């Protein structure tokens, strides 16, 4: 069972007698409680795809199903969708969080009473009760973002679209958004996340789909993607500098000393030999040298590779 099924989406724009193939062929599926990070360089087709999923623009070809129904044929499908698109523009700035929640709740088909009750629950859950009567424009950027999340969840959708949810937020507000995303998922909602902040994608996503020039080039579980690019080398950090004699011996067995106290062991079978050579220099840590998502993303984009499960 999927919360989102998008098949073979295509969208072409016409501008000044030019045809722009924004999305050539995109298929995405998301399970309940899954976070899919949808990544790609500028202009790759992310926003166009998300707008087709949200029912905001019609695809030229392909289909979208949210919890089994197509928002382009049946607008009731949007009852299962919440969205925080392009920052926090889905709010009325002069209204308070409470009023925003009630207004958007009613717009989503709730009764006033249901909207009020659901709004209060969300304000409580997101730690915003004390600000419920303050106009949104007077709240901090991080709090405004929390209100935007609450508004998107007022009708308890099964799928939440998050477009750059941490853009322009400071470190603490960014941490709060991460906590919020985890909490929303734990409560049963699936998330389609786009972001250019790859550490956020790495931390929050279960799966990653990369779009390039309108097509999905990579789609894999996040950890699998990271493992695939990480190889099997180890990084050893010592407490004190390694002396020149040891460095010479280490290099004869292929270990790379990159700073006076950091060594990479490319061949894991030499790990214990390296440790013997280092003995008795105190160790600070030993870890598998994992690639991070930023390195992987840049490599995939530069080489134009296709990697799928
Ligand atoms: N309304 C439009 N009219 C014409 N061309 C458009 C329109 N919207 C997007 N495009 C073009 O379609 C392509 C894909 O754009 P899209 O905004 O979907 O990419 P994106 O991956 O979201 O990029 P970014 O990361 O920069 O937001 C780009 O070449 C863009 O210039």
TrEMBL record:
Organism domain of life: Bacteria
Listed PROSITE patterns: ABC_TRANSPORTER_2
Keyword line: ATP-binding, Nucleotide-binding, Plasmid, Transport
A family per Pfam: ABC_tran
UniProt-listed InterPro entries: AAA+_ATPase, ABC_transporter-like_ATP-bd, ABC_transporter_ATP-binding, P-loop_NTPase
Keyword Transport appears in the UniProt entry: yes
Gene Ontology MF annotations: ATP binding; ATP hydrolysis activity
ABC transporter domain boundaries: 4-238
Cited SMART domains: AAA
Keyword field contains Nucleotide-binding: yes
Protein's UniProt name: ABC transporter
